[in-house]
C-alpha cells in the first residue's frame, strides 16, 4: 500500500508538470485554432530565465514571477509577428512554429551556454514528510497544488467571467463579437500570452524537480504535451488535466514495475485512446 501511494504521488506530480505545459497548448489550440509547435521553446525559456533569476536573486518566488513575465513577453512577440500572418493556415503554422522552436533553442545556448544548469528547490520546499511508510516529498506536493490551482483558476475565468465569455463567443463567431465593439484580435493575443506564461511556469517548476535544465528540454516535453492534448481531446481543458494525470501515473508505475516499457507507455496509451475514441477522451466529434 505504501509503495502504491508513493508511486501515485510521484506520478501525479509529473502529470501536473505536463499539464501546465499541455494546458497552455490546449488553450491556444482550443480557443484560437493555432497549432503552436514552438510551445516547448517557451517552456524552455521559462525554465532558463526563471532559474537564472532564482540563482541571481536567491528568491524562488521572484524566479517564478520572472519566468511568467518572460512567457508573457515571448507570447506577445510570437503571436504578433509569427502567428498573426498565418491564422487559418495550419500547414504554415506548423512550419513557422517549428522553425521558431529551433531558433529559441539555439538562442538559449547563446545566452546561457550549451551545458546543463543545475537547479535546486528553495530551502522551504526541500526534504519530505514521512507518514508511516509513506514518503511525501515537499516539492512534489507543491507542484501538485500549483497544478490544481491553475486548473481551477483558468476554468473559473473561462466559465464565470466576462473575459471568459468574450473568448468563448469569439471562438464561435468572431464577426459577431467584433460587431459589438470588442477587439477580438487583442483578446486572442491575451489568450496566447496566457498560454505562453503557463508554459514558462511549467518550465521554471521543472528545474528543481529534475535537478537540471538543458536547451533541448523544450522539444522533449513538447512531445509529451502533444500526447496529452491528443489523449484529452483537442481543445478540451478538463481533458488535458485528466490525460496529463494518466500519463504521469502510467509512467511512474511502469518505470517501477516494467522499466522496459516506461518510455513507450505514453505512445501506447495514445494509440489505445485513438483506436476507441479518435476525438480524445473529452473531444467532440468533428
Briefly, what is this?
With 286 residues, the chain is mainly α. It has 11 helices and 4 strands, in the order H-H-H-H-E-E-E-H-H-H-H-E-H-H-H. It has one domain: ABC transporter involved in vitamin B12 uptake, BtuC (Orthogonal Bundle), CATH 1.10.3470.
- The CATH topology is what? ABC transporter involved in vitamin B12 uptake, BtuC
Low-pLDDT residue spans: none
Termini separation: 43 Å
Number of structural domains: 1
Order of helices and strands: HHHHEEEHHHHEHHH
- Proper CATH architecture: Orthogonal Bundle
SS-based structural class?
Answer: mainly alpha
How many individual β-strands? 4
**Shape designation:** globular
> If you average the pLDDT, what whole number results?
89
Describe, in plain words, how this protein is organized in 3D.
This protein is mainly alpha-helical and 286 residues long. 74% of the residues lie in helices and 4% in strands. It is built from eleven helices and four strands; from the N terminus they run ααααβββααααβααα. A two-stranded antiparallel ribbon has the order 1-4. α2 runs parallel beside α4, α2 (39-57) packs across α9 and α9 packs parallel to α11 (265-276). The model has no long low-confidence stretch (mean pLDDT 89).
What keywords describe this structure?
286 residues, ABC transporter involved in vitamin B12 uptake, BtuC, two-stranded antiparallel ribbon
List the helices and strands and how they pair.
Layout: H1 2-32, H2 39-57, H3 60-83, H4 90-112, E1 117-118, E2 128-131, E3 134-137, H5 138-160, H6 162-172, H7 174-179, H8 184-210, E4 212-213, H9 217-232, H10 237-257, H11 265-276
Amino acid at each position: 500500500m505504501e509503495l502504491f501511494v508513493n508511486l501515485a504521488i510521484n506520478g501525479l506530480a509529473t502529470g501536473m508538470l505536463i499539464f501546465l505545459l499541455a494546458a497552455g497548448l490546449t488553450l491556444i489550440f482550443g480557443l484560437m485554432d493555432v497549432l503552436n509547435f514552438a510551445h516547448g521553446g517557451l517552456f524552455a525559456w521559462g525554465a532558463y530565465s526563471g532559474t537564472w533569476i532564482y540563482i541571481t536573486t536567491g528568491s524562488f518566488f521572484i524566479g517564478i514571477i520572472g519566468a511568467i513575465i518572460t512567457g508573457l513577453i515571448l507570447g506577445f512577440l510570437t503571436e504578433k509577428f509569427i502567428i498573426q500572418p498565418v491564422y487559418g493556415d495550419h500547414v504554415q503554422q506548423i512550419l513557422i512554429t517549428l522553425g521558431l522552436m529551433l531558433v529559441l533553442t539555439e538562442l538559449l545556448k547563446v545566452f546561457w551556454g550549451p551545458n546543463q544548469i543545475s537547479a535546486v528547490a528553495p530551502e522551504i520546499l526541500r526534504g519530505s514528510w514521512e507518514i508511516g511508510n509513506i514518503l511525501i516529498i515537499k516539492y512534489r506536493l507543491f507542484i501538485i497544488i500549483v497544478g490544481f490551482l491553475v486548473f481551477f483558476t483558468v476554468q473559473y475565468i473561462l466559465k464565470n467571467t466576462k473575459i471568459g465569455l468574450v473568448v468563448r463567443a469569439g471562438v464561435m463567431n468572431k464577426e459577431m463579437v467584433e460587431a459589438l465593439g470588442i477587439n477580438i484580435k487583442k483578446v486572442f493575443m491575451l489568450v496566447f500570452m496566457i498560454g505562453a506564461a503557463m508554459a514558462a511556469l511549467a518550465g521554471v517548476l521543472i528545474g528543481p524537480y529534475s535537478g537540471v535544465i538543458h536547451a533541448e528540454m523544450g522539444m522533449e516535453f513538447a512531445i509529451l504535451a502533444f500526447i496529452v492534448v491528443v489523449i484529452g481531446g483537442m481543445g478540451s481543458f478538463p481533458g488535458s488535466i485528466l490525460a496529463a494525470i494518466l500519463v504521469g501515473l502510467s509512467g511512474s508505475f511502469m518505470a517501477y514495475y516494467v522499466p522496459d516499457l516506461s518510455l513507450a507507455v505514453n505512445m501506447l496509451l495514445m494509440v489505445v485512446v485513438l483506436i476507441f475514441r479518435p476525438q480524445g477522451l473529452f473531444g467532440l466529434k468533428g
